[in-house]
Amino acid sequence: MFGKIFILFILVPLAELYLFMTLGKQLGFPQTIAIIIVTALIGAALTKSQGIRAMQKLQQATSSGKLPAREAFDGIIILLAGAVLITPGFLTDAIGFLLLVPPIRSLLAAYFGEKLKSKIQVTTPGNPGTPTHNQKPKSQLDDGNVIDV
Question: 47: closest CA among 109, 97, 105?
């Protein structure tokens, strides 16, 4: 994991430098800087509006008694998109704008949902009279007295 993150922190800045130099030669320095500033402003505005919408959906799901897993995931991805969009660069801006596209977020949710399914184990309480693998037999339970601290 450390190796992948290390490579990411080396390759992304190198790609950004290459894009800055290439586009700077083609467009000129002032235009290149202007594009970066404009994309950061547009990205911040889009992130804010989608973040507010995601928060509203999260609150609606919670108030209706639904587990807001998808809404929380959308909020996390929108937050990540905002962080990437305010980072100066063309590659990071492209990734940030992609993360703000709802169908892309749906694909990411499906992908990570499948990865997490194999790591999550759901257990339900058994019949109180029959011990399950998580319960001790009745004879090994405490006497029921509770001490508040």
Answer: 97
CB contact set of 72 (below 8 Å; sequence gap of 6+): 58
- Distance, CA of 20 to CA of 100 (rounded, Å): 23
In a domain, 15, yes or no: no
Number of structural domains (the chain) is 1
Q: Is residue 45 part of a domain?
A: yes
Element (H, E) at 16: helix 2-27
Q: How far apart are CA 41 and CA 92, in angstroms?
A: 14
Euclidean distance between CA atoms 71 and 91, whole angstroms: 26
pTM: 0.69
What's the token pair of residue 128?
């109180």
Q: Contact, 97 vs 85, CB < 8 A?
A: yes
pLDDT tens figures, 44-100: 899 999 999 999 999 999 899 888 888 889 999 999 999 998 888 899 999 999 999
